[in-house]
Write a structure and sequence with these properties.
about 270 residues, 18-stranded antiparallel sheet, 1 helix, mainly beta, globular
């Protein structure tokens, strides 16, 4: 049986869902963030008023919606394999890193970009969508139909195979909570997993064991990893925490059955 290291990432940002998307230009060589804009047929009908309680309920319900991951068919930088939009952020998944473009909804421009890299990992893992969804995404940018992207497939998860020997990585989540699992095969070593973050103003471990990344757009909280194995007797929890190294974050893991079950971390 496999073991799982499960991580939960909570964005301390407030986002509002929108109905359509247009591409925003970016500097050469950079992964472009996509600007989200709402469009309506009649400018006179663009405003919607919610009572405070109703607005809070709408935001809460929206935050529970599952993330979907679009396969990149040319709607963004060619480095990107899949992209996803959550509440206050856009996630770009390339072959060797995850890029979080964080959006601050205040009047002041406090946007930020976080890069999550796996140190010493396979630079060319097989990346694939899992659980294709019925919904499709369409992009109609500009007046040139040859640049439009239609019926873009979406998936509930994205899987990276063999990021480390015997270790797969799976992304999924909800609008306000990005999640990822490291699934460790029997006999593989979870201690090879090293996370490197770029773009945070500071990084700290709090007294709960959560990893806090402070940015100009708000805080990103990586909750203390949940590590377990699915044994015949049921789910067996395994001790594990973040460990701040000089430039990376490691995952010290307690004793586990390395010959029988796989481990996977999930934020």
């Amino acid at each position: 049986m496999r073991s799982v290291l499960r991580f939960f990432v909570t964005m301390m940002l407030l986002g509002i869902p929108v109905t359509s998307h247009t591409a925003e230009s970016s500097k050469a060589g950079q992964i472009p963030a996509l600007a989200a804009t709402a469009t309506t047929p009649n400018a006179a009908d663009t405003s919607t008023t919610f009572r405070p309680a109703t607005r809070a309920r709408v935001i809460e319900d929206y935050g529970k919606l599952s993330l979907t991951f679009e396969v990149n068919r040319g709607q963004t930088d060619e480095q990107v394999k899949f992209l996803s939009r959550g509440s206050g952020y856009t996630l770009f998944l390339t072959a060797d890193e995850a890029v979080l473009a964080l959006r601050d909804n205040s009047d002041v421009d406090h946007d930020a970009v976080l890069h999550l890299k796996l140190v010493g990992a396979n630079p060319e893992p097989r990346v694939s969508g899992v659980q294709e969804q019925s919904g499709k995404v369409n992009y109609f940018v500009g007046n040139d139909p040859s640049r439009w992207q239609t019926n873009v497939s979406t998936y509930a998860k994205v899987r990276y195979e063999t990021v480390y020997p015997g270790v797969d990585l799976v992304y999924y989540g909800s609008q306000q909570k990005l999640e990822y699992d490291f699934v460790v095969a029997p006999g593989a070593d979870p201690k090879v997993i090293r996370l490197q973050f770029e773009g945070a103003e500071s990084v700290e471990l709090d007294d709960r064991g959560d990893l806090l990344l402070h940015t100009s757009a708000g805080d990103v909280r990586l909750h203390r990893p949940i590590i377990y194995q699915n044994a015949e007797s049921g789910r067996v929890e395994i001790d594990g925490d973040y460990e701040l190294l000089v430039v990376t974050t490691g995952l010290p893991v307690g004793p586990y059955w390395g010959t029988s079950d796989a481990l996977a971390p999930r934020p």
